[in-house]
Design goal:
Number of domains: 1
Mean pLDDT: 76
Oligomer: single chain
Structural class: mainly alpha
Distance between the termini: 15 Å
Shape: elongated
Number of helices: 2
Helix content: over 70%
Strand content: under 5%
Radius of gyration: 11 Å
Number of strands: 0
């Protein structure tokens, strides 16, 4: 599940770079996803 979410966010982030759509929001979501991923890896 987490890999699906990470994949979707990365795809949206890349599309945001290509088309410059909602740049700030995409970066915030990417940082949140990265933090969640790191916390899940530490807790395992």
């Amino acid at each position: 599940m987490i890999w699906t979410i990470i994949g979707i966010i990365l795809l949206i982030w890349l599309l945001g770079f290509l088309f410059e759509i909602a740049g700030g929001l995409i970066h915030i979501l990417l940082v949140i996803a990265l933090i969640v991923f790191i916390v899940k890896m530490i807790r395992k």
